Description:
By secondary structure, the chain is of the alpha/beta class. The chain is 39% helix and 19% strand. The strands form two sheets. The protein has a ten-stranded mixed β-sheet with strand order 2-1-3-12-11-4-5-10-8-9, sandwiched between helices. Strands 6-7 form a two-stranded antiparallel sheet.
Amino acid sequence: MPRSRPNKGWDVRIAVIPGDGVGVEVTAEAIKVVRAAAAVFGHSLDFEMLPWSADHYLATGVTIPSDGYNRLREFDAIFIGALGDPRVPDNRHARDILLGTRFELDLYVNYRPVRLLDERLCPLKGRTPADVNFVVFRENTEGLYVGIGGRFKPGTADEVAIQEEINTFKGVDRIVRHAFEFARATGRTRVCMADKSNAMVDGHALWQRVFRDVAARYPDLQARHLYIDALALLMVQDPSQFEVIVTNNLFGDIITDLGAALQGGLGVAASGNLHPGRTSMFEPVHGSAPPLAGKNIANPIGAILSAALMLDYLGRRDEARAVEAAVARAVSERQGTPDIGGSLGTHETGDYIASAVRKVEGDTWRNQKF
Ligand code: IPM
Ligand code: MN
C-alpha cells in the first residue's frame, strides 16, 4: 500500500476484537502467525484484546463502551475477527462495533485485494493466478450504509420503508483519488469505476463527474466506466481485464463477495478499512459463520492475509511479505482446511503457516511478487 500510517518505530500496539463465532478462532491463528513473523524479524507487537462481541452485549447490554472509539484511536491498528450472532437478530452490536468504527474513525477506504493464489481454487475454467489479480476500493463511510431512513406504519399493509443513499463530493472524490493514487504508486495502469448512473441518475451523476475530473489528472492511467451489473458480468467472464476497481459502499460489498469467490471463497479473502495516515482496521471479508463456529473447521487464511495487510500498512513490509509467502506455500501444498483442498483444522492451518513463516526467513519470500 502506498500511503501508510507514519512509522512510529517497531513497537506497535494493536487492538484485537475477535468478536463472534469463527471470528474468535481465526483471530487466534492470525495473531499466532503475526507473532511468528515479528519474532523472525526481531520486532515486537503488543496486542490488547477487547471483548466486544455478542456475548459481551448480551451479558452487559453494551455494544461498544461510550469511550470505545476514542480508545481505538489510541492504537496503531485494529484487528477484527467477525461479528454477527443469531441471538442478536437486529445485528446491533455488529453495527456499532464494525460499521460504527468505520464511520467514527472515518475509515473511508475499504481495500479488498482479489488475488488467486492457486489455479485450482478458482471456480472459473482455465483461469490462473495471472488472470485474477485486482483490487477493489469500496467507499466505506457513506452510500446506503449511513442509516438514514425510517419505517412508516411498520408491520401493516401500508408499510413504507425508506433507506437513503448519501453521496457527497468529499466522499466520492477521496475514494476515487485514492484508487488512482494506488494505481500509480503500484505500477497498475487500469482504473475502473462502477456505478448505476443509468438508473440512479442523481446520486451517481456525482460519481460520473468526479471520476471524469479525477481521471483527467492521471493521463498516464486508463480510466474506464462500467455500470455495476456489467462489471459483475465481466468479473466472471474475464477477470484479467481488471487491475483497480472503485465503487460505492453497497456495490463494493456485493462485488467483493464475488471477488472472494474468484479467489477461492470467502475463507481466503482479506480486507483493510483505511484512513491513510491514521489508525486503520483489518478484518477478513467473511462473517462469523455461526454453523461453523467452535468446530475448528473455519479457514483462517482470510484473517491471516488481513493481518499481512495490517503489517504492510504499519510499514512492516518484510513481515507482510513473509506471511503472504507462507500462506502461498500452505495453499500450494494443500496444508489447509477442506475448502482449499486440505484436511487440516483451523488451528493446525495456523500452526503450519506460522512454521512456514519461520522457514521462509532469508529464503524464497524475498523474491515473491505480491
Ligand atoms: C462486510 C460485511 C459487512 C458489510 C456487514 C457485516 C455489515 O458484509 O464487511 O463486507 O456489509 O459491510
Ligand atoms: Mn460483505
